[in-house]
Q: What sequence folds into this?
């Protein structure tokens, strides 16, 4: 697991996946989220607009990234 710093208090799931380099584009984020391939704090998440806060853990394809303070 690695930490990814954000500048605000919250970030949308799709934006975070791109920021953490877990995906390459917004279109790819839409696909992997819709396909149920993304977990937030251990639960499958299908909402691209899900608001993440500091401490949340996002997993995709065997990689995990934690939202941290910038």
A:
């Amino acid at each position: 697991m690695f930490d990814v710093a954000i500048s605000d208090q919250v970030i949308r799931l799709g934006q975070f996946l791109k920021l953490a380099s877990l995906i390459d584009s917004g279109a790819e984020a839409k696909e992997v989220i819709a396909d149920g391939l993304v977990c937030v704090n251990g639960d499958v998440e299908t909402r691209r607009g899900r608001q993440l806060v500091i401490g949340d853990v996002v997993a995709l394809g065997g990689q995990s990234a934690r939202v941290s303070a910038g």
